[in-house]
Structures are given as structure tokens and as C-alpha cells.
Amino acid sequence: MLPRAPEAPTNVLTFDPSSPLSSTGTASVLRVSQIMSALSYALDLTEGQPMGHSVRACIIGMRIAKHIGLPVQDQSDLYYALLLKDAGCSSNASRLFHILNADEIRAKGDVKTTDWTRVGWESLQYAISHVATGAPFLERIRTLLRVAATQQRDSCELVKIRCERGSSVARSMGFSENVALAIFSLDEHWNGGGYPDGLRGKQVPLFSRIMNLSQTLEVFWANREAEAAVDVACQRSGRWFDPDLVKAVESLHQAGALFANLGTEKVLQDVVALEPEERQFPATEGMLDGICAAFAEVIDAKSPFTYRHSTGVANAAIAIGQELDMNPQAITFLRRAALLHDIGKLSVSNSILEKPGKLTDGEFSVVKKHPYFTFEILRRIPGFGELSEIAASHHEKLDGSGYFRGYGAEQMSLPARILVVADIYDALAAKRPYRDAMPFEKVLGIMQSEGTQKLDARCLDALITVQRQSSGPDLKELAQAVNHPVITIPKETLV
Ligand SMILES: [Fe+2]
Ligand SMILES: [Fe+2]
After folding, report:
1. Distance, CA 303 to ligand 1 centroid (Å)?
2. Which CATH superfamily groups domain 23-283?
3. Which among 85, 112, 302, 345 is annotated as catalytic?
4. For the chain, what are the domain ranges?
5. How many whole angstroms from 409 Cα to the centroid of ligand 1?
6. Is 479 left (phi over 0), alpha (psi -120 to 50) or beta?
7. Phi and psi for 27 in degrees, rounded to 5?
8. What is the CATH number of domain 285-481?
9. What's the pLDDT tens digit per position in 304-356?
10. pTM, whole model, 2 decimals?
């Protein structure tokens, strides 16, 4: 999908150059780096990191790469590997939640500042703070003992799931094998103590060595301060990190160049400007479709109960849009919004997503924030203003009773109304932690009971027509026609 080198692209996407997120203020061609850097904010949420972590780690990594004289082609691969380093992070979230029986996002966030390779007070304290935190005392002790006994095997399994998935996501978007392998070996350590293969020294790909060092520096810089970050790099030199790279870090830090301007609002523009000039990729329609489909899979991998939800919503939305005679361009727009509508759900812990019982008010308020995060992530892509609005409106209702903004009918465009109906349809039709999948007629009965005060009647009628037309297209055929895997999934009428 990505060209091996910048060629004269066809069908290049453009955006309004007056956008405040334009890296140059004048260029109107949308670049792959602008899309990937914005979408990396979603990966930060799943890793329990503040939004912007991947972008800042990318800036640090590129500064190291330039300092050590990495060739331009390699810098280009490293750049995308850094932005996509956590692309597999959603795929082990459910497994980690079940191992810990606790909030896995908090656990993922805090493990980044823990030296888990050494048995001692630090790792014990981490375990006490993150294992079965809400369970009764005896159950908690039992879980702690089990986690301690299986820690090495579980860690290896979790890292393996994550790195295999992350490298597969990179490949599916057309990035080079160097990018995929760098992501695969992100958690290997210089002394052979990392995962999944226990690679040692220069067996660990150089990109992975730079990436692991950069992400650690960013986390300690963000949680503590610059000096503490460099101190950790020095303490772990020769164990976690390549000693030569740590020397480069010390040299950059002494020159004041390692963390410069990392805390500014301009960090997103800065990271886009860091992409090597000789290898900048204009985004085409096809690339954007591929990136949306790949991120839909990242979103859906978060929980077995949302497996293929995004593609299911896209299929239902396309069916409704076609039934309403929307033009092909509008259908393409709708499909992209549908594929990315739940990207903010990467911020919700699996302890909530997979809870078999009723959610508490506090848990439900976390769920209700996910369209806000969808908006916050997608609006960062230049030219995605309208798409981010529509994707973030998928839980709104015409009578204003929805969330996250309580929009009413006057604020709901046709694509937004279609997305609401498609999302509820797909959510009800799938199995949930607390109930089985529902047959179409039952789904329909529930949706009709919502009435036209909440759902758009035209969209609902269109969905019914498509489903009941014996000679018309069914949702499965539609999905195949747009080259995405099909199916239906969901959670209550909500997530
Ligand atoms: Fe959804
Ligand atoms: Fe949602």
C-alpha cells in the first residue's frame, strides 16, 4: 500500500490548508504521517499513557537516529515503527485483564515505570497495586500467588500476542518488513532478558533498541523529569538498553536537544515535520481505506465481545446509505466514519467492557466518555473535522438523550443518524458478556420501541428493507464488496 519511495501519486487526498493542524500552514496534501501520528493517540490510551506518548517517543527516537547518523531510508522506517509501536496493544488487553482480575489499562501504564525484570520490592509493590484489586482478601492472595507463579510464562505470552499483532497491523498497512520486525522485537532487552525470543545484544534489531529506549525515556520524562529519565536509561544500560545508544542519549541531553520542546502544544506538527524530507508519503484514497480498516481491527481486538464490531457497523451503515441512494463518495465517507467510530473505546478498561453484571455509575461515566475520545483523536487528522463530528455522534439520540454531548435532531446530519442506527443494530445483534446474540426480529422490536423521537425513521426503515428484501443485498455481501471482513457484534445498545 505504501510506495517504496515517494512517486508521483494519483488520487492524493487534500485538506483545507487553513487547518491549524497543517504542518506547514500552506501545504494542502494530506500526508500518511499526519494520519498515523494522530491515530497513535488512540494507542496511547490503551497503553495507559497520556495522549501524545507515541508522538513524543517518536520525536525522541528520531533525535537519537539523527545523532547516530542513521541513513534516511532507515530513518523513514524507524519513524513509522515508532508511531505504530503499540499497534498490537489492544490484542492482549482482554488476556491481561483476566490474568490480573483488575484494570489492565492502569496496570499497563504503571508497568512502564517499573523494572519488572528484577525480583524485589518494586515488582512486589506493583503486583500488590494491580492484582485483583477489588477482590476479597483471600481471593486476592490466591490471585497474587498464581500471578507470581506464572509471571514469566504470562509475560512472554502477553508480549508475544502484542508484538505478533502489532507487526501484522504494520504489514497490513503496507509498511516494510523492517517496520514490522522492529515492532515485533520492541520488548527485547540488550542482556537477553526481554521477550518474546530473549534476543541478546545486536541480535535485537537496531530500530527496536532505539524504540524501547525512546519509549522509556518518554515515560519517565512525562511522569518525573528529564534528569530522572536519563538516569533510568543509564541504570539500565547494558541490561535493557544498548550502551552505545545510552551514550548518544547522554550526549543529546547534555546538548539540551533530547527533550527540547516536547511539552508544547505543537508536538503533533513537530513530529510531522520530523519525517525525512526525501521519504514523505502523500495519502491516497486507497491508503486511507487501508489505514481505517487496520485501525478498525485494532479497535475490535480489544475485547472478544467487540470482535468485528467496527466492520459490522460499517456494513450496516453502507447498507442503509445505499438504500437511501447516497452517492459513492458519501458512502466512502460513511464507511470510514463507521470503521473508526469506536476508536475512543480503546480508553475503556476491559474490566468494564467485559463486566458480566450491571455497570456502576462510575463505570458508565467512563463508557460515556469514549465518543469524546473518538472526537479528540480523529479531529487531529487534517481534513477530518466533519468525519470526527459524525463518528463521535454515534451514541447521540434525536431527542437529546444520548451522549457525549446530548446533541438533538438539529445537530444530527444524515450520516450521523445512519451511524446511530447501524451501531445499535450491530450492538444488539451480537453476543455480550451478560446475554446471547439476538435474532434480527428481536433487535428490530427493540429498535422500533425506541421510536422516532430517538432514532431516524428513514434510517431504520432502510435497515429493515435491506434485511427483509429477499432479492436485495445482505450485509455480508456488502462487506465482501468493500473488501472488509464481515459479521455483526456489539454490547448492549451502548459501547
Ligand atoms: Fe460502537
Ligand atoms: Fe460506541
Report:
1. 12
2. Hypothetical protein af1432 (1.10.3210.10)
3. 345
4. 23-283, 285-481
5. 20
6. alpha
7. -65, 140
8. 1.10.3210.10
9. 888 889 999 999 999 999 999 999 999 999 999 999 999 999 999 998 988 88
10. 0.86
